[in-house]
Structures are given as structure tokens and as C-alpha cells.
């Protein structure tokens, strides 16, 4: 079971990037998929997550209105469209997947961005640098 991120790079403030998370060895239809990021010297944090059942999405407050998560089940791929990028968005971005997270999403109070340890499968990360 593998996840592979792509699409990172260097972009100026205010610019856009689209990250992709391609799953192989399993069907992402059964898994919630989340995006996380880790800046130098900081802990890894949740950015966004999408349900495989109903397409429900979650966003960290810091990216709401700027980032959009989506999935193409036919391609077994989840995307993160990042607009209006800021220097503070600079980080290594990781995607992660898990079936238990998907199950827990049935609870209306559950936030899939809180406990990173719940995710069993992780990609290797892609660097996003926002700088002029």
C-alpha cells in the first residue's frame, strides 16, 4: 500500500499550486485521505481531509477559503488545490490514508485533522516553498 505525493515546488506569495496524492496497492474508495504539513522546527499539522463515502471535507482554519481538497476515485488520486499561498504555507506536505478515520467520520463531532497517529499510511512528502 503506497501513497505518492507530487506537485510541490517554489511559488511566489499569492501564487497557486496543486498537489496530488496517488494511491497504489489499494482502493482509496475505502479510505479517508488527509493532507498534513510540517514546517522546519514545527510539529506536523493537519491541513485538510476528505471522506471517501460522501465527499465531506475538513480544513484547518489557517487554510479555509484558500485550499480545496478533492478526489478522483477513478484515478485513485486526491488533490489539494492551494491558492493565495503565503510564506507561512512553506512546509513539506504529506498525504495520509486510513480506514478507521473514514469510519470515525460518521460521528458529526469527529475532526480527522487532530490525531495524526490515527493514519496508518503515509506518503514521503513533497516540498512547498512560498517565497519571493
Estimate the global geometry from the Cα principal axes. Answer: globular
Helix vs. strand class: mainly beta
Supply Rg. 14 Å
Termini Cα gap: 37 Å
Give the tally of β-strands: 11
Beta-strand portion reads 35-45%
Which secondary structure elements does this structure contain, and how are they paired or packed?
Blueprint: E1 2-6, E2 9-11, E3 17-24, E4 32-38, E5 45-50, E6 57-59, E7 67-72, E8 77-82, E9 91-98, H1 99-104, E10 121-122, E11 126-130
Parallel strand pairs: 2-11
Antiparallel strand pairs: 1-3, 3-8, 4-5, 4-9, 5-6, 7-8, 9-10, 9-11
Output the keywords.
single chain; 132 residues; mainly beta; 7-stranded mixed sheet; 4-stranded antiparallel sheet; 11 strands
Protein architecture, described:
This protein is mainly beta and 132 residues long. Helix content is 5%, strand content 45%. The chain has one helix and eleven strands. It has one helix spanning 99-104, and strands at 2-6, 9-11, 17-24, 32-38, 45-50, 57-59, 67-72, 77-82, 91-98, 121-122, 126-130. Strands 2, 4, 5, 6, 9, 10 and 11 form a seven-stranded mixed sheet that branches. Strands 1-3-8-7 form a four-stranded antiparallel sheet, with no helix packed on it. A hairpin with a 6-residue loop joins strand 4 and strand 5. The radius of gyration is 14 Å and the shape is globular. The termini are far apart. 36% of the residues are buried.
Amino acid at each position: 500500500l503506497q501513497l505518492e505525493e507530487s506537485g510541490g515546488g517554489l511559488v511566489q506569495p499569492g501564487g497557486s499550486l496543486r498537489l496530488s496524492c496517488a494511491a497504489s496497492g489499494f482502493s482509496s474508495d475505502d479510505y479517508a485521505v488527509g493532507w498534513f504539513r510540517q514546517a522546519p522546527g514545527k510539529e506536523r499539522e493537519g491541513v485538510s481531509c476528505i471522506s471517501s463515502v460522501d465527499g465531506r471535507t475538513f480544513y484547518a482554519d489557517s487554510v479555509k477559503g484558500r485550499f480545496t481538497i478533492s478526489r478522483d476515485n477513478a484515478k485513485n488520486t486526491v488533490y489539494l488545490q492551494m491558492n493565495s499561498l503565503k510564506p507561512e504555507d512553506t512546509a513539506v506536505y504529506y498525504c495520509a490514508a486510513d480506514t478507521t478515520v473514514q469510519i470515525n467520520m460518521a460521528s458529526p463531532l469527529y475532526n480527522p485533522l487532530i490525531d495524526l497517529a490515527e493514519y496508518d499510511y503515509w506518503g514521503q512528502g513533497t516540498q512547498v516553498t512560498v517565497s519571493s
